[in-house]
């Protein structure tokens, strides 16, 4: 028997679900990282909810972004459980823009919701979540990792714009400029530099107790297939481990075999398939 619970208090929600999410920080890096970054002084999340099965937590649902509800890594849920959850969502949550979560459960839930609402469910992106505990490879290129600074803004703005275009998350140049400023000021954006030229970048985000996530991995087209992204991510990952994180994680687009190969060579292991589904 399942029970669907919605929460109004961020503090109460954190207390209820954090230990469940922390059982797999890497797989839950998106939901857990966003949740832990918020306080009661921030805007109230659009949705805080949990699915209970036989008095045990089975799934956490969290929404701060208008286009998607984040689903945690689930426990063993039957099709009947998913259908009952879909029914509860349709009855109590409006609007339901889409989901991001473990592929099988998310796909089944989206299919039920789309049929109940009479909408079309569209796959926006299919990704693999990777986790690393130890860097395997050694650096291959004659370069160095350095922190990105304000004077790099023009380059980084263009790279963020291109990165978002390639990952089907388009934004304007003005929005890319704002994002570049934010990431630079936050201090966790790095670049691989060869002969005083930036050739690849990566960022760290969503730190949790033992894990931190790498994102915004990008190399401009004229610098690809030279090993720069591999060295950038590898060196950056090692530095994050040296800071005290036990693991690092990242999302990789399944349609890009090159990046998936590179991450595996560094030491990243696939732990969960993730899918983004939006309703139209």
From TrEMBL:
Its EC number is 2.3.1.-. Gene3D superfamilies: 3.40.630.30. One of its GO terms (molecular function) is acyltransferase activity. Residues 143-280 form the N-acetyltransferase domain. It comes from the Bacteria. It is an enzyme of class 2 (transferase). Keywords: Acyltransferase, Transferase. InterPro entries: Acyl_CoA_acyltransferase, GNAT_dom. The keyword Transcription regulation does not apply. This is GNAT family N-acetyltransferase. The lineage of its organism: Bacteria, Bacillati, Bacillota, Bacilli, Bacillales.
């Amino acid at each position: 028997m399942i029970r669907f619970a919605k929460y109004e208090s961020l503090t109460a929600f954190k207390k209820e679900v954090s230990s469940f999410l922390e059982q797999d920080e890497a797989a839950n890096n998106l939901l857990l990282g966003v949740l832990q970054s918020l306080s009661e002084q921030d805007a109230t999340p659009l949705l805080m909810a949990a699915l209970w099965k036989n008095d045990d937590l089975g799934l956490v649902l969290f929404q701060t972004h208008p286009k998607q509800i984040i689903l945690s890594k689930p426990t063993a849920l039957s099709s009947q459980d998913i259908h009952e959850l879909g029914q509860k969502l349709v009855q109590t949550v409006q609007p339901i823009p889409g989901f991001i979560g473990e592929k099988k459960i998310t796909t089944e839930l989206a299919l039920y919701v789309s049929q109940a609402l009479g909408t079309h469910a569209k796959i926006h992106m299919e990704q693999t979540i990777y986790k690393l505990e130890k860097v395997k490879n050694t650096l291959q290129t004659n370069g160095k990792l350095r922190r990105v600074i304000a004077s790099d803004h023009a380059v980084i703005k263009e790279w963020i714009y291109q990165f978002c275009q390639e990952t089907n998350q388009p934004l304007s140049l003005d929005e890319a400029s704002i994002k570049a400023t934010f990431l630079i000021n936050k201090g966790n954006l790095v670049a691989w530099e060869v002969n005083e030229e930036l050739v690849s970048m990566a960022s760290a985000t969503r730190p949790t107790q033992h894990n931190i996530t790498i994102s915004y991995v990008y190399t401009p087209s004229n610098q690809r297939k030279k090993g720069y992204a591999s060295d950038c991510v590898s060196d950056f990952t090692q530095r994050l481990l040296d800071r005290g994180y036990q693991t690092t994680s990242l999302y990789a687009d399944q349609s890009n075999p090159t990046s998936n190969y590179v991450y595996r060579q560094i030491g990243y292991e696939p732990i969960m398939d993730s899918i983004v589904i939006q309703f139209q």
